[in-house]
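Reopening this ticket.

The earlier resolution said the output was attached, but the attachment link was broken on my side. Pasting everything inline this time so it's all in one place.
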Amino acid sequence: MSNISAAPRAAVIFIFITVCIDIISFGIIIPVLPHLVTTFAGGDIAHGARVYGVFTTVWALMQFFSSPILGALSDRFGRRPVILLSCVGMGLDFILMAMAPNLAWLFVGRMISGITAANFSTASAYIADVTSPDKRAAAFGMLGVAFGIGFVIGPAIGGLLGSIDPHLPFWAGAVLALINAAYGYFVLPESLAPEHRSAFSWRKANPLGALKLLRVHPELMSMASINFLSQLAQSVYSTVIVLYMGYRYSWDAGQIGMTLALVGVCSAIVQGGLTGPVVRYFGERHALLFSLLIGIAGFVIFGLSSTGILFLCGIPVIALSGFANPAVQSLMTQRVLPSEQGLLQGANAALIGITGMIGPILFSETYARFIDPDNTVHLPGAPFLLAAVLMTVAAFIAWRAVRVNSAR
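Inline output:
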């Protein structure tokens, strides 16, 4: 964390640990949730993929409506209370899902989970509060490390616990989320000074009102478009990757959990060790373009890998696309006022919510169609190839942005 000045370093460490524990509790359920949904849905893999796509869409819909509200509330009352209440809500929701006796109760749990998970946008606003503009890419990279570590530990534990009992990871997630809330209560300081707070307004807090902020500056809209397309492409992970690995490579929950852990390790290395130096040397715009281009290559490798070994070879490649989010986040935060950082992150989360509504249906339907025995074309990797196409469009917009900036 050498790229972050000493003054806000302690605060960044606090939010780093908070987000890390948050992601561990969230990642624990990843290896088992798709299979649990499939079991409740009757055991048919193609039908289970479609049902899970609906689950993921509803989760994103809840994020879409909740993120701007939480962002606006954090601009009014501070980041700390919003983060803590969300952690408590997440822990209680995991208990509900652990006890869910059928698909309907599990569905309700996922709806609540979408609301509580919206605190990630508040964590991003926290980072923007405590770092200077020239240090934000590195700080957002450290936030990415927290995600990476969480997805190393979480799925690995979830895979092991899920092999014992598919409900056990939910109990573990509940314990971690509630521990996280207790930790934050005692050690997480407030980041938003009273003089930088703004009045709460439903006009701004609703998703459409928050998205209007993105039209304030032309480059802000351009970066938002890149963010939207890249996040839409990356929603292929949460939608089909677990089902894909199980179907194409016949991996069990433990193997899938360890593979997702490897993804997290590579992501943490890239975002924690390389983001700061790369962005500092090449600049945010060029780092963003490179990240998107390497992401295209990674998705193509995933989509065309006929063996598990080839799939694993694509993980370090796709990890290098991790520069994109810190770079685009840094560029966007430099275009708004301190009192609007929460609203900006709420708008970003609303965009992610939209991708979460579109992506699961898009990718789960693509996956189900191309593994259907009645389909003349059998291509299980089709969702990843579609993600590569979306990333290509994002790279084109980034290339234009780099060219325009270079011409100035």
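Reporter confirms the inline version is readable. DSSP finds 17 helices and no strands in the chain. The two ends are 32 Å apart (CA to CA).
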